[in-house]
């Protein structure tokens, strides 16, 4: 069994590899039982093909701690990777996979709304699949937006609407409980990755935009229970993202929306890839 710390997990899971792993994570041969809160941690079991796993992460604010453990088809432990690092990369990879399938191939301007722990990987994922030349960053904390802009070569937007008005792709990763931009700011054709609203009480996207969009989710059951943007807009998804791998999306919709709440099969697929790369590179602690 191999164990990867945070730096080793990131080294062994480059974004292009993580995005490729999402085809299995969202594919037909997967299981995503409902997550459970036990004590101060979320327990998220899942399966992709013969590989099963579980993520255990702390829910205590300011304590980004946890692990993902994966097992082969006969239950033998394969390894353990750092949970927060893997979560940030696989969440971004899911959005990158959706962007690859749904966004205009020539999209060159990204609006990143939110400058927290997820944002840098989200930007990298979109850049991996689209020729992004301009990144506009907005956050309620201008200092955080400025730091992120320096890190990624982006520009701080004066407000969320100003970022959205110029964007071909919009990614939102905030803990908001109200829409963070106005519906009138959205361009006629745009792709949106809505990452932050992972409970019924949370919302980032204006309801009228959600209602107009072609709505794609990572998992129907998870979205029905947790996707605040859809629940508060009173609409259901059109399709799961895995179905788009072999069936192109309905281009009668100029706005596409990928609503992600995060599912355990993403953790399993990404961790499997990281551990396979680690074995090839002789990285990590073998016990």
Description of the structure:
The chain is of the alpha/beta class. The chain has two domains: 2-87 and 264-286, 2-Layer Sandwich (ornithine cyclodeaminase, domain 1); 102-259, 3-Layer(aba) Sandwich (Rossmann fold). The chain is built from ten helices and 16 strands. It has helices at 6-11, 15-25, 83-102, 119-129, 142-152, 160-165, 207-212, 220-226, 228-233, 264-281; strands at 2-3, 30-31, 36-38, 41-48, 51-58, 66-71, 77-82, 109-113, 134-138, 155-156, 169-172, 190-194, 214-217, 239-240, 255-259, 285-286. A hairpin with a 2-residue loop joins strand 4 (41-48) and strand 5 (51-58). Helix 2 crosses helix 3 and helix 2 (15-25) crosses helix 10. It is globular, with a radius of gyration of 18 Å.
* Unreliably modeled segments: none
Number of strands: 16
| Main CATH class of the largest domain | Alpha Beta
Please, how many domains?
2
- Overall geometry: globular
CATH architecture label of the largest domain: 3-Layer(aba) Sandwich
Strand proportion: 15-25%
N-C termini distance: 5 Å
Helix content: 25-40%
Major beta sheet summary? 8 strands, mixed
| Average pLDDT figure | 95
Fourth-tier CATH superfamily name of the largest domain = NAD(P)-binding Rossmann-like Domain
CATH topology of the largest domain: Rossmann fold
Radius of gyration (CA) equals 18 Å
Number of H- or I-type helical stretches:
10
**H/E series:** EHHEEEEEEHEHEHEHEEHEHHEEHE
Estimated structural class: alpha/beta
